[in-house]
Amino acid sequence: MNNKVLRQKIRSLGISVKRYEFYKNAVIYKDAKEKKHVIKKNDCNILEKYNYLNSRGFGYLPRLEYVDNDVYVYEYVKDTNTPLEQKMSDIIKMDALLHNKTVYYKEASLDEIKETYENLRGKIDDTFNYYYDVITMIEGEVYMSPANYLLARNCSLIFSCLNFCKKTLDEWYDIMKNKLKKRVVLLHNDLAKDHLIRSDENVLISWNKSVRDLPIYDFIKLYKNNYADYDFNHLYKEYVKKFPLTIEERKLLFIILFIPPRLDFSLSEMKRTINISKLCNYLITTDMLFMENEAKNSEEQNNKVYE
Question: Contact at 8 Å (CB) between 184 and 104?
Fold first, then answer.
């Protein structure tokens, strides 16, 4: 549903509008009384989610004003000017609170655990083979390009991370096959600095992608999108202080974080060099996060990923 359709929906509701503001997934409009409202497509059964969150004691939501099968409208809340580091801290605390309010245990069959194991192991092996073939090709060059030279110099970092993932995945499976239970929470699944509004009370918006799954996925997505801009050592500590992760959740978290993405070799030499540099920075930053928060209290403490 695009902005034009949303605007038509506003008119069909008989609302007198003085001004529109158009965004990617929403329209903000000002009514005749100079009051602002937000209208979005209702593709997630928003009323059911509001009712569930309120029943669990999580009321940090914008006030819902109208809802039907197509759209929902909520009261616009003006954001206050806040340092971004403080806002990110507020987001991680809000996420921990959300998980605390919605957590429950669910049976996990051995087949389900095996499927997760095999999917991750397949991804790890495919990534290992991909980078092995790339490095083999690069090492056969007489004169390496700057991007290829940078990748060749840091290939041990990539393979160390993948070997860590293999070892830790086996440890995760040994725990889960005897436990056969997992913790499930309601994930916001779209955490971003623009989705936390600071006013008289903090308000978390944009619930369209929320799902029930393991609690680690909110942190994973937030980290991958923002790792270079904020101190995630501090943010991770804040999160686990308010919502401690189990040992199997921590292992799975770092397995997923340490699997490097593939590179796009169709880009220009400059862009490829920049992307390889970003990849190395991501893996080193993730290793620092692991060593600071997990290795000291785990059996992996003598197996540092990055030397």
Answer: yes
Whether the Cβ atoms of residue 255 and residue 286 lie closer than 8 Å to each other: no
Whole-number Å distance between alpha carbons of 105 and 108:
9
Within 8 A by CB and 6+ apart from 249, the residues are 183, 214, 215, 216
The residues, any chain, with a CB within 8 Å of residue 286's CB and separated by 6 or more, are: 161, 227, 254, 257, 258
Distance CA 195, CA 207 (A): 9
Q: What is the pTM of this model?
A: 0.91
Pairing of strands 27-31, 17-22: antiparallel
Cα separation, 162 vs 158, whole angstroms = 6
Q: Distance (Å, rounded) from C-alpha 252 to C-alpha 226? A: 20
Place of tokens 């609302």: 15
Instruction: Give the pLDDT band of residue 6 (cuts 50, 70, 90).
Output: confident
Q: Is the dihedral of CA 179, 180, 181, 187 positive or negative?
A: positive
Please name which of 158, 99, 74 lies closest in space to residue 124, comparing C-alpha atoms: 158
pLDDT in tens, 219-236: 999 999 999 999 999 999
The Cα 243–Cα 96 span in angstroms is 5
pLDDT at 236: 97
- Rounded to whole angstroms, the Cα distance separating 112 from 72 reads 36
